[in-house]
């Protein structure tokens, strides 16, 4: 059987881990984070800031009842407005438990999960980091 241990600094450890996985810094990038008044309210803005990005935060005042209430990945209008108002490079909208996100580009257009996966795959391939790297179409 396992054991349960509480870590008062668990969120800090997680943020340090996340930032440590990056092979680039985010200086010069302005990101708007919509944390959906949920689990990402503290960690996401801090991780992006530690990585060097300028961060504007919305939807990060959880009170135990307002999770996803008019904000987050199911309500992108506030994020779109904030990205355009602040002339940000992108916006990231988490869902309440922070296991998914959508994005808004600098022009206010939605970048859905499939498109994000494609962008990441192309980037990994270009850097030679795509697992089981292959070319398409195969001959």
Question: Would you write up a description of this structure?
Answer:
With 139 residues, this protein is an alpha/beta fold. The chain contains 4 helices and 5 strands. It has a domain at 25-121: Alpha-D-Glucose-1,6-Bisphosphate, Chain A, domain 3. Strand 4 (101-105) and strand 5 (110-111) form a beta hairpin.
Weakly predicted, low-confidence segments: none
Distance between the termini: 51 Å
Let me know the CATH homologous superfamily of the domain at 25-121.
Answer: Alpha-D-Glucose-1,6-Bisphosphate, subunit A, domain 3
What is the H/E order? HEHEHEEEH
What is the CATH class designation of the domain at 25-121? Alpha Beta
Order of strands across the biggest sheet?
2-1-3-4-5
Structural class: alpha/beta
Mean pLDDT over the full residue set? 92
Number of separate strands? 5
CATH architecture of the domain at 25-121: 3-Layer(aba) Sandwich
Give the amount of beta strand, in percent: 15-25%
Shape descriptor reads: globular
Task: Specify the helix fraction band.
Answer: 25-40%
CATH topology descriptor of the domain at 25-121: Alpha-D-Glucose-1,6-Bisphosphate, Chain A, domain 3
Gyration radius over CA: 17 Å
Tags for this model:
single chain, 139 residues, Alpha-D-Glucose-1,6-Bisphosphate, Chain A, domain 3, 5-stranded mixed sheet, 4 helices, Alpha-D-phosphohexomutase alpha/beta/alpha domain-containing protein
């Amino acid at each position: 059987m396992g054991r349960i241990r509480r870590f008062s600094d668990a969120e800090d450890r997680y943020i340090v881990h996340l930032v440590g996985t990056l092979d680039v810094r985010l200086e010069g990038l302005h990101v708007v984070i919509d944390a959906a008044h949920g689990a990402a309210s503290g960690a996401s803005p801090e991780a992006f800031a530690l990585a060097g990005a300028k961060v504007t935060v919305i939807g990060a005042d959880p009170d135990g009842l307002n999770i996803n209430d008019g904000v987050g990945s199911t309500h992108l209008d506030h994020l779109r407005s904030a990205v355009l108002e602040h002339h940000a490079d992108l916006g990231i909208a988490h869902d309440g438990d922070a296991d998914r996100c959508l994005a808004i580009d600098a022009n206010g257009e939605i970048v859905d999960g499939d498109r994000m996966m494609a962008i990441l795959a192309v980037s990994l391939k270009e850097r030679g980091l795509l697992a089981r790297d292959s070319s398409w179409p195969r001959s």
